[in-house]
Amino acid sequence: MQKGPALESSDAEAMSSKPRHPTLVVERGAAGVLILRLGGDWSVSSALPATASVEEEIAGEPAVTRLAIDASAIGAWGSALPVFLRGVQHIADRYHLALDTEGAPVGVRKLLALAAAVPPRGAALSAPERGFLARVGERALHVHDEVLGFLTFLGETIVAFGALLRGRARYRRAELALIIQEAGPRALPIVSLISFLVGLILAFVGAIQLARFGAQIYIADLVGLAMAREMGAIMTGIIMAGRTGAAFAAQLGTMQVNQEIDAFRTLGIAPAEFLVLPRVLALVLMMPVLTIYSILVGIAGGLIVSVGLFDLTLVQYWEETVASLTLTQFAVGLTKSVVFGVLVAVAGCREGMRAAGSAAAVGDAATAAVVTGIVSIVVADGIFAVVLNALGF
Amino acid sequence: MPSVSDPSAAATTGCWAASSEGEPHIVVRDLTMAYGDFVVMRDLNFTIRRGDVFIIMGGSGCGKSTLMRHMIGLNRPAKGQVLIGRDSLWETEGDARAGLLRRLGVMYQSGALWSALTLLENVALPLQQFTALGPAAIREFAAYKLALVGLAGFEDYYPSQISGGMQKRAGVARAMALDPEVLFFDEPSAGLDPVSAYRLDELILELRDSLGTTMVVVTHELDSLLSIGSNSVYLDVETRTMAAQGAPKVLLERCQDAKVQAFLTRGRQRAEERHA
Q: Are A246 and A370 in contact (CB under 8 A)?
C-alpha cells in the first residue's frame, strides 16, 4: 500500500545538487509495524509532508503496535526532520504506540533526545480560569488599588510641597530652571498656533449665526468669554498633557527602568521631592502664564476674522472685548489652569514612576500619562462648570 | 544573636561553615521575601561581619537581587528583620531611616548612574545634598572618588558616553561618595570582559582592605566569588530557602550538599558521575 511517489527512482538524483521536496511513504511492515519511509531533502524552508496519512493508517488498522522510521533515502536535512519526527512522536503517544527511530540519522536522534531531555513545563504561568463573579471582584479591587495609588501619590506630592514651604525640600534649582524652560517658553510656538486657530474657529462659527441678526459685534464677547473661561485653560492643558506630561512620563520611566530612581531612594532622597516636586512646580508656575498668553492670542484670532470678514473695526472689537471681560472671567480661567497643571504633572510623573522592566513599559507610561492627563482635565472642567454655576460665577 | 552554625532554618541537608569571628555588622533574621502571595525565599538567617566580603550566590532567578533589595530598604520583607549595626532597617522611619540608608552604598547592576548628570555631578550630588562642603571641596572629593576607581579624566563625561565597565566603576565611585560602612554590589561582573571583571574584583578587595568597608556582593560568577568571598549564603531556588553558609572556598572543599557542589563546580561533579 503506497501513497506518494515511489522512492527507488530518486536514488540516482541524490547526487544532484538540486534540492528535492521531502517525501513520506507509509508502508505496512510485518507484525503490526508501520514503516514511515522518508526521502528527499529536509531543509528548513521546505514544506513538511502531512502526517494525516499516518494517522489514517493507524486508525484503519487496529493491529499496529509500532511505528518505525526508515530514512535511508533522505538527502540533506535540517530542522525540518526533527520537527517532523516530533510530530510523529506526538501521534505515537496519542495512539500509545512505540516509535522506533533507529532508522533516522544519528544526529537527528541526538537532537530529539536533547529536545526531550527537559519535560515541557506545565501551564503553571497561565492563570487559572475564573468565574464571572471572581473577575468582577478582581476588576473592582483593581480599580480600588488604582484610585488608592493615585491618592497616595498625590499625598506624597503634597507632603513634598509642605517640605518645600518649610524650606526643607531636596531638589536641584538648576533642574527646576531647566524644566521650567522646557515646559514654558519652548511651548510658546504650539500654544500660539493652537490658540490662534481656536479663536479663529470660534469667531467663524459664532459670526455665521450672529450675522443673521446683524449682531456681528457680539463675536468679540463670544470669543473673549470662551477663551478666558474655558478654551484658554483647556487647550493649554491638553497641549501640556501631550507635550510635557508625556515627556515627564518618559523621563521618569526611563530612570525607573535604569534603577536611577532606586539609586535616589537608597541615598534617602525621596523621589517625590527630588523628581516630582520640581516638575509639578514648573507646570503650576507655567500653566497660568501660558493660559493668559493663549487667551490673548485667541482673542487676536477672533479679531482677524471679525475685522477681515465681518466688517467690524479694530476699535469696535477691542472695546466690546474689554466691556465683556471682567476680572472674574480671567480668575476662573487661571484657577482652572493651575488645577490642570497639577493634574497633568502628577499624571505624567506617576505613570513614569510606575513603569517597570522594559522599553515597552516606558512607551506605555507615556501613552497612559497623556490619556490620564486629558481625561482628568475634562473631568475637572466638568466639576468646575457645576461648582461655578452653583456659586454664581 | 542567633548562632550561625545552628540556624533555626537548618534542614537535614546543607552546610553551615560560617566563622563567628568579628563584630556582626548586618544581621538578617527570619527573613521571608514575597511578591504578593508568591514567596521568593523564606527563613533566611545569616550574619555579615564587619570587613567581610559577603557573597550572595545562587542560580539565576533564585532571588539574589531581591534579597539585596530587602537589605538596602527597597523591598519590604513579608516577615523578619534586617539589622544594620543595632538599628532595624524596617522599624525606623523618617530622617532616622534616611540616615541609616546613607550608611549603605549601592552599585546597581547597570550602574544606574543619573543619565542627565556628568560623572562628576553623579558623585557630587550626594555630597551636595548631605554634607556642608562648599562647591570647590565637593569637586575635589568627587574627583578623588572617580580617581579611586580609575576614572580620572572622565569627570565631565556623561554616562552614555562611556563603556559598560566604566559605568559600573563610576557606579562604585558614586556608591562610595558618602564613605558608607557597607557597599553592596549587584552582579559586578555581569556583562564585563574577564579582565574588567577581574579589575573590579581587585577594586572590591582593595577598598575593603584600605577602608575596612564591609562588602556584600550578589553574583554567580564562580571565579570571582571563590577568589574574593570570605563568607556567603547559597540560595536554593527549589527549596526556596538558604542551603549553605560559609566561605565559598570552604564550602567547595567540605560541603557535601549535591546542589551546592554542583553550583560551585559548574555541574562538573554531575558530569563526572555521568561519565564514570
A: yes
